[in-house]
Design a protein that fits this description.
The complex is a heterodimer of chains A (393) and B (127). Chain A contains 14 helices and twelve strands. Chain A has helices at 28-43, 66-74, 90-103, 126-130, 135-140, 148-164, 168-182, 197-202, 230-234, 266-277, 294-303, 312-318, 334-338, 344-358; strands at residues 10-11, 13-16, 52-55, 80-83, 109-116, 205-207, 210-211, 221-228, 241-250, 286-289, 371-378, 383-390. In chain A, strands 1-9-12-11-10 form a five-stranded mixed β-sheet, sandwiched between helices. A five-stranded mixed β-sheet of chain A has the order 2-8-5-3-4, sandwiched between helices. The longest helix of chain A is centred in the middle third of the chain and has 17 residues, at 148-164. Chain B has 127 residues and is mainly beta. The chains are: A alpha/beta (393), B mainly beta (127). Chains A and B meet through helix 5, helix 6 and strand 6 of A and strand 4, strand 5 and strand 6 of B. Bound molecules: zinc ion. Zinc ion is lined by residues 22, 24-25, 36, 38-39, 41 of chain B. Residues 22, 24-25, 36, 38-39, 41 of chain B line the site of zinc ion (ZN).
């Protein structure tokens, strides 16, 4: 029998820094310290209460003993710590792991910390590319000049279009609805004016069929959440957001070796999370899914069961994904509007779900806010981590 | 990676395409490695493979970040499904991008790309 962590832990503290483009003299460890202070305030606890740390990798500092580097800088007194490296799935994966470690009694308050300074040329130079490539990718893919994640998602989008007739305008609609959401988010990087489908389709094609405005913008920032046990959560000052279900799945590292291009491990990961939570997609009031590219959102909606496989194009075309709509999706604007502050990009999907379930989302607050589906996606549909969060236990 | 005693690249130099093959599992393996990824046994046998397959997916790269690709940009990156049952990333050449279709048959040729001789693909029989 599988141990269930349903409702055994909650998220009680949450914070994020406003994403920014110019790093100037700011450093990763300082960002992590800044956001930790905000998360502690939000949770109403002291630094001394934190005895667990799960941190995502740095990009400017060395990886070696990274949790110890962070714990030393923040002067934390810990009984459990680790680094979570699942690419874009790291932040969501950290929350799942925190729930397990707290439920197991290894720590009482686990800080899930992500983000940092990200080189604006990340992924774009030969060095930037090889930094995120396996030996096999360097030997057998790099000689062909792949455009990193851009070309990987383009291959998936192309195949999806060929198999199911998915249209560029349908994919563009995802970016458009999310930009509408961003207009109500003061923290978003792109929240000045609405976006139209035509504008997306007229933006430069980077790797066809993917346009510039369907691609996430790397930036800097940090985000954190704090996960305590149910008993501690109930004694806290903030309304707990319950961790009701979690699931992960992995099939490949490089997209070249994915079993298929039109389905992702989200199907298995979300299936586990829904089963653990005792919920179905029909119960979900908010989807907060990893959106490095529009095709990532479309495939997540299909594979998590919000529509049938292959019908994602028609579904997003005919479904209002804004905070006013039938299926509010990435109500903060997603990473497509907020930018991708390295591994904290994936944490924005968690923090927005917490905000909405607490009823603290301001102008973009959704009316029905019982359950949120959250996903993190690492690599090109390589590593998928899913959570179901609940307002009510 | 060329000329380093890796049979894959040594064969490419001679314009032949070879892949490791697991005699126990009766399967070809890509990318090349020492152990069969299915049964973890070795050694694998190197076999000459006909460079025939079909386009599984493709993308035209319009903006390349690598300066050595500037002279051939735009170029078509293609995920090729070889008839022997493995997938590999390559280029699709000698074919206008509007003529490319998913599942179209392709055959391997050898071309110099950014200073390295590589197996690439062009439209095959039936076109
Ligand atoms: Zn074998």
């Amino acid at each position: 029998m599988i141990m269930s962590i349903t409702n055994k832990t909650a998220i009680t503290g949450m914070a994020e820094l406003q994403p920014f483009i110019r790093a100037d003299d700011r450093r990763t460890l300082d960002l992590l310290a800044e956001v930790t202070a905000l998360a502690l305030d939000d949770a109403g606890i002291n630094k001394g209460d934190i005895d667990g740390l799960l941190v995502t990798p740095p990009s400017e500092d060395t990886y070696f003993m990274w949790p110890a580097q962070v714990a030393e800088y923040l002067q934390l007194d810990l009984s459990y710590m680790n680094m979570v490296e699942l690419g874009g799935a790291s932040a969501v994966g950290a929350v799942m792991r925190a729930a397990v470690m707290v439920e197991a009694g290894l720590c009482n308050y686990c800080l899930c910390l992500s983000g940092g300074i990200w080189d604006s040329q990340v992924f774009n130079t030969r060095e930037g590319k090889t930094a995120v490539m396996s030996r096999a990718e360097i030997d057998y893919e790099l000689p062909y000049g792949p455009m990193g994640f851009n070309s990987g998602y383009a291959l998936a989008a192309r195949r999806h279009m060929a198999e199911f007739g998915t249209k560029p305008a349908q994919l563009a609609k995802i970016a458009v609805d999310q930009r509408y959401n961003a207009l109500a988010n003061p923290l978003a990087l792109f929240n000045q004016k609405p976006l139209t489908i035509e504008e997306v389709l007229h933006s430069p094609v980077i790797v066809d069929p993917i346009h510039l405005l369907e691609i996430v913008r790397p930036c800097h920032g940090a985000a954190a959440v704090i996960v305590p046990s149910a008993a501690r959560a109930l004694n806290g000052t903030r309304p707990p957001v319950w961790i009701r279900g979690a699931g992960e799945a992995y099939t490949h590292n490089s997209i070249v070796y994915a079993p298929v291009l039109t389905a992702t491990p989200i199907k298995k990961a979300a299936g586990k999370a829904f089963a653990m939570a005792g919920l179905t997609p029909a119960d979900v009031d908010l989807v907060s899914v990893y959106d490095c590219y529009t095709i990532a959102v479309l495939m997540a909606l299909e594979d998590a069961g919000f529509c049938a496989k292959g019908e994602g194009g028609d579904f997003v075309e005919n479904t209002d994904l804004t905070y006013r709509g039938q299926l509010p999706c990435n109500t903060h604007g997603g990473q497509l509007s907020c930018g991708q502050p390295s591994y904290a990009g994936g944490m924005s999907q968690v923090t927005e779900a917490v905000r909405q379930l607490r009823g603290e989302a301001g102008d973009r607050q959704i009316k029905k806010n019982r359950f949120a589906f959250v996903s993190g996606n690492g690599g090109v549909f390589s590593t998928e981590s899913c959570l179901l969060l609940g307002r009510d236990r | 990676m060329q000329g380093t005693g890796n049979p894959y690249w040594d064969c490419v130099e001679g314009e032949e395409f070879c892949l490791p093959y697991c005699p126990l599992c009766q399967k070809f393996v890509f990318y090349p490695r020492k152990l069969c990824p299915n049964c973890f046994k070795s050694p694998l046998e190197w076999k000459v493979v006909p460079g025939r397959g079909k386009v599984y997916s493709y993308t035209q790269v319009r903006v390349s970040a690598l300066p050595e690709f500037d002279s051939i940009t735009p170029y078509v990156l293609a995920l090729i499904e070889l008839d022997v049952g493995v997938k590999m990333l390559s280029h699709l050449v000698d074919c206008p991008s509007e003529k490319i279709t998913i599942n179209m048959p392709v055959e391997m040729v050898f071309r110099e790309i950014a200073g390295q001789k590589l197996p690439v693909f062009r439209p095959g029989e039936g076109l």
